[in-house]
Amino acid sequence: CPQREAREVTNDQPAAVEDGRLESWCRRELGSTPVRALFAAGHLAKVVGVELDDHRQVVIKVQQHSERLVAVVSVQRHLFDAGFPCPEPLVGPAPFDTRVATAETYVPSRP
Question: Which of 3, 13, 56, 105 can bridge 17 by disulfide, Cβ–Cβ 3.0-4.6 Å?
């Protein structure tokens, strides 16, 4: 398994937030804008955790569209609705430039 690069964001804004693309996507798809970055990671997908101006904490994953991704979000929604302890899917896959993005609730890891 390739290692994923994850890092704590120290400047409060990851690159996708700084250039406005993520902010626009969040406003359009989630009805709220990022005010603070929680983390950023990526390998095959760009993954960003943000706090929105309505105080929700969400994880946004930007990646290439695939039917597999549509199926994964559908299964995750079914599991969440059935009470399985997993993040709630909020949006997606929804267009993000030439890719798609999904959003789900942020569930911090337990120590």
Answer: 13
Closest CA to 73 of 62, 89, 57: 89
| Three-class DSSP labels, the chain | CCCCEEEECCCCCCHHHHCCHHHHHHHHHHCCCEEEEEEEEECCCEEEEEEECCCCEEEEEEECCCHHHHHHHHHHHHHHHCCCCCCCEEEEEEEECCEEEEEEECCCCCC
Average pLDDT over the chain, rounded to whole? 86
- HSE of 61, CA atoms in CB hemisphere, 13 A: 22
For residue 17, what are the contacts with CB-CB under 8 A and spacing of at least 6?
23, 34, 37, 48, 50
Q: State the residue for tokens 């549509």.
A: 70
What percentage of the chain exceeds 70 in pLDDT? 83
Alpha carbon distances (Å) from 6 to 3, 9, 55, 89: 9, 9, 23, 21
Query: Residue 54: how many CB atoms within 10 A of its CB?
Result: 10
